[in-house]
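Schema walkthrough. Field components (list of strings):
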Amino acid sequence: MTTSAATETQSTLLDHVEAINWNRLPDEKDGEVWNRLVNNFWLPEKVPVSNDVQSWATLTEEEKTLTMRVFTGLTLLDTIQGTVGAVALIPHSLTQHEEAVLTNIAFMESVHAKSYSQIFSTLCSTKEIDDAFRWSRENENLQHKAQIVMDYYHGDDGLKKRVASTILESFLFYSGFYLPMHWSSRAKLTNTADIIRLIIRDEAVHGYYIGYKYQRALEAETEQRRQELKDYTFDLLFELYENEVQYTHDLYDGVGLAEDVKKFLHYNANKALMNLGYEAMFPSDVTDVNPAILSALSPNADENHDFFSGSGSSYVIGKAVETEDEDWDF
Amino acid sequence: MQTSSTQMTSASLIYFSSVSNNTHRFVEKLQLPEGQAARLPLHTGTETLLATEPFVLMLPTYGAGGGRGSVPKQVVKFLNVEQNRRLLRGVIGAGNTNFHDSYCIAGDIVAAKCGVPHLYRFELMGTSEDVSKVHKGLEEFWKQQSSLSAA
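Field assembly_structure (string):
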């Protein structure tokens, strides 16, 4: 029961709306995340995917099929999150401004879903595209993961919806995100990878924000209920993880990358838990993501940037970066 | 050393954490002795801290594009105090690799601007491995620092 979370409503649509006043922010995080999301706004049409046509031609048929299947899988998740997931969270919002942020999240998920179609129309034939979408409808593990999440979105527990949503944003996408990072690390499909990096950046803010709101809503709950939700979170993550492992083998066994992808899954599962305020679960010996993938994700995440581990001799004091001088007196 | 009424602190680790508390949780996990960690005020309207001893600054990055506005205003306010800048010895950044080349960029900016090393980067509230690396790393770092100043 969520009776103690008095500000939440139980209906599927709001039945009372007041004019939103952005000059009174009960939770400053709403304003901060709104601004962040607006500043991060992008559209796939601005990225020159057509520059990847030659690179696409260098992939084998198997690699092309794999890439298209991965992208239809991602399209399905973005469609769910855009039209069901983010919208389903609105009636449970703690503030009016959270409702507004969720509409932004919902719209951006629809932009993400559309961007895969732009990649397809640039690189593939209509028949290939139709085949890939048919595969996404028929793949058992993909449909199973969609069904698990959809079931929670149709429930009436706002906290469980937030958990499912954070796990989707911060974990379920990553079996797919791995592949464009892999191609990018080999200097293939680099413009496509630029689109995916924009999506990855957005999902980080979404997972952070929904996970933060989960933690705020949790503050109003009893100790018993908090324990129940923690158990639920780990159970759900484990159920989805087992399904992800199957899905990963389905997709990547043919190209011999499944074990590498699984490390990336563990690494991101830990981040999903942290977004929800829980400690990481997978130990470091199974989260050692391939350095080429990590560097495709973030060029300054490697060990050369760790002053503590080395002698420090290889360390170079940060390159000159543009700063907002008007804000600094020195 | 409870001198919070005068806003002075002799802490060796000074950090900013927003209401999401990710960085705050990391600092709690370090289990530093009482008074060795000090949190910057949440709001820029509040008077900032004044450091009285050398310290390392820990700060998060929320994923700005291109660096603009990456350093939290509360940190800018703190570093605008000359004495604080003078006692700054290093930076530790928190962030998310999802932000590509903006990962921990606020730490890069402060390190470059103040000419101190960016000692370590971790994600969100950090794993147990991050905690032990930073714990050990900071111990070593302060030993080096004191032998440098003795020489």
